[in-house]
Specification:
- By secondary structure, the protein is mainly α.
- It is built from two helices and no strands.
Length: 43
């Protein structure tokens, strides 16, 4: 995305400086949906 690694790091540092980390616990809908599609394709 950014051609210069240092510039990309500096931009992300500014954007994420006051960010809050949110941990989400539970099953992933994307993974669950992917696994269900794999099961259907086996038959």
């Amino acid at each position: 995305m950014f051609l210069e690694i240092k510039l990309g790091n500096a931009i992300l540092d500014c954007v994420l400086h006051n960010a809050t980390v949110v941990n989400i616990v539970g099953p992933s809908f994307k993974i669950t949906d992917h696994l269900e599609k794999e099961d259907v394709n086996k038959f």
